[in-house]
Amino acid sequence: xxxxTAILFFSAMLAVPVLAADPVILNLxxxxxxxxxxxxxxxxxxxxxxxxxxxxxxxxxCAIGGCMRFTGEGEHLETNLGGAGSVPDDSTTxxxxxxxxxxxxxANANQLQLFSPDVFDNAYRGAALIxxxxxxxxxxxxxxTTLFAIPGDYTDEMHQLTIAYDAEGATGYWDGKxxxxxxxxRLDLGEPDVVLGxxxxxxxxxxxPFAGLIDEVHVFNLALSGEQAGQLxxxxxxxxxxxxxxxxxxxxxPVTTLAPTPTEKPKPTLVPAPTAKxxxxxxxxxxxxxxxxxxxxxxxxxxxxxxxxxxxxxxxIEEQKAENRQRAEERKPxxxxxxxxxxxxxxxxxxxxxxxxxxxxxxxxxxxAMRFNExx
Length: 376
Known about the structure:
Layout: H1 2-15, E1 24-28, E2 44-47, E3 57-59, E4 67-71, E5 76-79, E6 96-104, E7 112-118, E8 127-130, E9 134-138, E10 145-149, E11 159-166, E12 169-174, E13 177-183, E14 195-198, E15 208-209, E16 211-220, H2 226-237, H3 246-249, H4 304-329, H5 336-343, H6 351-375
Parallel strand pairs: 7-15
Antiparallel strand pairs: 1-16, 2-5, 3-4, 4-16, 5-14, 6-11, 6-16, 7-8, 7-14, 8-9, 9-10, 11-12, 12-13
């Protein structure tokens, strides 16, 4: 009995969804059907303005694959998100977000219903509508609140609208970028009898059913941050098939940046200072002595000057000898020079040799005279 009780208890625990495990509580791709592909698999109904089953129209090429076309005649989608454990019961203060892609058939000044909690006793808390220029939030019978002015045209192509509700109010995003904030506005989805209407509703007392295209409807049991809203838009904008919404909530893997290994600074290349070019050593050229001409007007040849000197000496010697002979005839003694010259024999050699012999003789006589004077 205890084993059976334990089995039933654990079976009941497994049957209750865990909120933290999957924040996506409604995921409609609208690819030719209105099946909820979230882990909760909520039942979704196609109804007309009177609450009767309606046949919905689908388009093959929209934001991401196919989408659903709303004619504005009152056909819409309904689903009950409360009572199945997918959202807290006290959702008037619990965070929740709704995101969808839309393209209106025409810029209509009337308020077109995008989504709304459809029940009599919850005062339509958090209903969202769109008019020609603004996204509007309704809270029961109170005056509508403008969440933000729509940037640009929403009839030209598909655009993504995301509204995040928390205890402070509602934050609106258009194509992933924050556009406005409405304080104090909630979205009540937790009560068991609350039905979320998409594109209209059978008991909504204000606005008109939406006319245009709607695609990729998501409801989250948390208030998306600005970063997550931007990631959701980028993820689906670049997708060609229904995207994996878990990527929006994946914790990014921290990137470890390795400090670069310090490298030795390259030593500066020393550029040698330019050296002055050595000045060429001036060549000292011997200035040639000017050539002298002899008495005949001819230029002297090398060695001719020495030869002339020697010839002059030889001639002087001969002249002195002649003078000695004359003095001998006159019975006069020869002069000192004459005595030296007489000492010089008649040489058969040429003038240079004779000069050398004469010079040696003169030196010999001079030395002899010096010794004679010393003795005397």
